[in-house]
Design brief:
Elements (H helix, E strand, L loop, with lengths): L3 H23 L5 E6 L4 E9 L4 E13 L4 H4 L9 E13 L6 E12 L6 E11 L5 H15 L6 H12 L1 E2 L4 E2 L3 E8 L4 H26 L6 H20 L2 H8 L4 H4 L20 H9 L7
Antiparallel strand pairs: 1-2, 2-3, 3-4, 4-5, 5-6, 6-9, 7-8
Length: 300
């Protein structure tokens, strides 16, 4: 038996807790809330922070939408669900720090239910989080993955390796033949063994995001940086944009269901640059990112 009311209450509380923790860490700016409604059904509340002491731009969105027909992005892997009505709710966030030594982070947790008269509802959870550094740091990557593993361990020792691999495979730019970052967790279509266990995993992932990210922010926010680091950060942000606009299923789902464009695209960084066939200097910290950190590996 599913409990949509409990899932929604959890997600709204999660948005509050994450925003509170992030703006305390920022110390300068606060999240501004923008509530919206969707003509086809549902709505949400978007919270955005800009020009902060730590975060150049970030957003933490809650949405709860419903419709008469699942969009193609939701049925691509489950064609048998085409034509069903749907209800979807979730929290999605992206934080873009100003200091290039602080990684960008992304997280989301979500719940879907697809229904058809005369048939049992089909439901599933999804979510995860991933880290996108500009300058690699082993301590940060290990902490991120150790926290992710601890969130998964109560649900079975096989869960973290499976969700880590799923994340590595999902956040991969095929046209660049490179990962977006150093990974983390990713899961979708998750409904085993039952609702309570699946909901528990989603909560554990959502609750552990702040624990995974804020210690990294706190350690790196005082690191001095200059124009060279800034230009490399803006260049690497281009990869983030490419992934979100070309591959990200959440972006596609939002656009295909007539979601609020401003909220869907709040994940994009405020400034970014592309440079034709740029290559880092051999032996540089910029080259180290690709040669050491953007390689599949066991972090814990």
């Amino acid at each position: 038996m599913t409990n949509k009311t409990a899932v929604k209450a959890y997600l709204l509380d999660l948005q509050d807790r994450i925003c509170n923790a992030l703006q305390v860490e920022d110390g300068k700016a606060s999240f501004q809330e923008d509530s919206w409604t969707r003509e086809e059904g549902g709505g949400g509340r978007s919270r955005v922070i800009t020009g902060g002491g730590v975060f150049e731009k970030g957003g933490v969105n809650f949405s709860h939408v419903h419709g008469t027909r699942l969009p193609p992005s939701a049925t691509a892997a489950r064609p048998e669900l085409a034509g069903r009505s749907f209800e979807a709710m979730g929290v999605s966030l992206v934080m873009h720090p100003e200091n290039p030594y602080i990684p960008t982070s992304h997280a989301n947790v979500r719940f879907f239910i697809a229904e058809k008269p005369g048939e049992e509802p089909v439901w599933w959870f999804g979510g995860g989080y991933d880290l996108t550094p500009y300058y690699g740091n082993m301590e940060d990557c290990q902490h991120w993955h150790q926290t992710a593993k601890a969130a998964c361990d109560p649900f079975g020792e096989e869960v973290y390796p499976r969700l880590k691999q799923w994340c590595d495979e999902y956040f991969f730019l095929k046209h660049r033949n490179e990962p977006r970052g150093v990974g983390g967790l990713f899961f979708d279509d998750y409904n085993q063994p039952n609702f309570e266990q699946s909901f528990g995993l989603m909560r554990s992932v959502g609750d552990s995001y702040v624990e995974a990210y804020l210690p990294i922010v706190n350690r790196r926010k005082v690191t001095p940086w200059g124009d060279q680091e800034r230009q490399f950060q803006l260049y690497r942000r281009g990869r983030y944009v490419e992934f979100n606009l070309v591959y990200d299923r959440g972006t596609l789902f939002g656009l295909q269901t007539g979601g609020r464009t401003e909220s869907i695209l709040m994940s994009l960084p405020p400034l970014v640059r592309w440079e034709y066939d740029w290559q880092p200097e051999e032996g540089s910290a910029e080259a180290e990112l690709n040669n050491v950190y953007l390689q599949p590996r066991a972090w814990v």
